[in-house]
């Protein structure tokens, strides 16, 4: 007599399969969960590491800027005109600095969005982070400040004050990196290639910069752009009086440093101002790092109407600029004449 086979109904087969899936799930759920957790953990970015890489990138770019200037290999050309009619220049210093800074940041944090003033398709995977964290950052900032890369936007200016760079007015030249979290400037780095000084700040955690002990209110010295001044001088004097001293300077990074206390060894290289005003369009890679440095000292950088600037999305800030520290920013804003940068 032939042995009887075991026959399962369709319902039995379904139950058996479900039991098998349940057993497999219980066996491997822990493994899968831990691996997913590890994957999510790897995707986080430690902001202290990002600050250290930002400092390294600004210094690396600065070396290229200085080398090109010293070799007189600028090969300058025009990228076009600003809305005010000023020429926007591009040099080999801009390009070589961009390649170093952009590739270092992207190679270290490939999931973080990086916006640069310059555009270049050169990819260099050999540019890698040294893994060194400067001593002053280690002293002031704890690690473990992890954040999702999707919330980050990095703005880099490989060479701020290109016009002055071509004129060999190198005291105005800086390289800059800024990290915005959900559109708010949190990390700022401004490096001066020709003095080898680097200012940095991590808002709410520490900085190597300080505000000065006193500022004039109303401001007696206001710093403005020398190449994009437009009607800014008459605008400033209408706000604060004809006796106001106006300092024309190149580079937004330099102008922010003029509001802060510089180390004694660098004091002679930066003008001192009480307020920074800009009344035309300006790009976010020009101002984001400075905003972070000022915010870290309790200062402010807003539009002319007092609005916070969102450092995500489009690269253009169309609302003008007022930057201060150590004074009543709201009182400053109340003195400003009505002005619409989009109409000028």
From TrEMBL:
Taxonomy, superkingdom: Eukaryota
EC number: 3.1.3.25
Reaction(s) catalysed by this chain's protein: a myo-inositol phosphate + H2O = myo-inositol + phosphate
GO cellular component: Golgi apparatus; membrane
InterPro entries: CysQ/Inositol_MonoPase, Inositol_monophosphatase-like, Inositol_monophosphatase_CS
GO biological process, one term: phosphatidylinositol phosphate biosynthetic process
Binding site for Mg(2+): 117, 157, 159-160, 286
Segments traversing the membrane: 12-38
Entry's localization field: Membrane
Statement: the UniProt record of this protein carries the keyword Ligase: no
Membrane topology designation: Single-pass membrane protein
Any one Pfam family match given in the protein's UniProt record, by short name: Inositol_P
Annotated pathway: Polyol metabolism; myo-inositol biosynthesis; myo-inositol from D-glucose 6-phosphate: step 2/2
Keyword Cytoplasm: no
Co-factor requirement: Mg(2+)
Sequence similarity: Belongs to the inositol monophosphatase superfamily.
Protein name: inositol-phosphate phosphatase
Organism, as annotated: Stegastes partitus
High-level lineage: Eukaryota, Metazoa, Chordata, Craniata, Vertebrata
């Amino acid at each position: 007599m032939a042995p009887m086979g075991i026959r399962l109904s369709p319902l039995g087969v379904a139950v058996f399969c479900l039991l098998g899936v349940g057993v497999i799930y219980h066996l491997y759920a822990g493994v899968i969960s831990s691996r997913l957790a590890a994957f999510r953990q790897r995707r986080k970015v430690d902001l202290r590491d990002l600050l250290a890489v930002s400092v390294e990138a600004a210094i690396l770019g600065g070396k290229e800027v200085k080398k090109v200037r010293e070799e007189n290999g600028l090969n300058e050309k025009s990228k076009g005109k600003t809305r005010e009619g000023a020429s926007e220049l591009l040099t080999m210093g801009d390009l070589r600095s961009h390649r170093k800074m952009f590739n270092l940041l992207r190679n270290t944090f490939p999931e973080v969005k990086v916006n640069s003033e310059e555009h270049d398709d050169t990819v260099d995977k050999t540019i890698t982070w040294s893994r060194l964290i400067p001593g002053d950052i280690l002293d002031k900032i704890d690690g473990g400040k992890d954040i999702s890369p999707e919330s980050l936007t990095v703005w880099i200016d490989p060479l701020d004050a290109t016009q002055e760079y071509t004129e060999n007015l190198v005291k105005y030249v800086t390289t800059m990196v800024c990290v915005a979290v959900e559109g708010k400037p949190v990390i700022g780095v401004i490096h001066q290639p020709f003095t080898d000084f680097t200012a940095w700040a991590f808002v709410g955690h520490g900085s190597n910069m300080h505000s000065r002990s006193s500022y004039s209110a109303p401001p007696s010295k206001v710093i403005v752009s020398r190449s994009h001044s437009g009607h800014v001088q008459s605008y400033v004097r209408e706000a604060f009086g004809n006796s106001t001293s106006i300092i024309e300077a190149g580079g937004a990074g330099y102008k922010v440093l003029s509001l802060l206390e510089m180390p004694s060894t660098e004091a002679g290289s930066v003008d001192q101002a009480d307020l920074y005003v800009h009344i035309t369009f300006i790009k976010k890679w020009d101002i984001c790092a400075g905003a972070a440095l000022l915010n870290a000292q309790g200062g402010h950088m807003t539009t002319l109407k007092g609005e916070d600037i969102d450092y995500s999305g489009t690269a253009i800030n169309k609302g003008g600029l007022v930057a201060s520290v150590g004074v009543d920013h709201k009182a400053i804003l109340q003195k400003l004449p009505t002005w619409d940068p989009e109409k000028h």
